[in-house]
Amino acid sequence: MFISIAAYHFVAIDDPGVVAAHVRARAMSDGLLGTVLVAAEGINLFLAGNGEAIDAFLGALREDPRFATLQAKRSRSDTAPFARLKVKVKPEIISFRRHDASPLDGRAPSVTPHTLARWLESGRDDDGRRVVLLDTRNREEVGHGSFSGAVALPIDNFTDLPEALDAHREALADATVVGFCTGGIRCEKAVPWMRVNGFAHALQLDGGILGYFEQVGGFGYDGHCFVFDERVALDPALRPVTAPEGARA
Question: For the whole model, what pTM was predicted?
Answer without folding.
Answer: 0.91
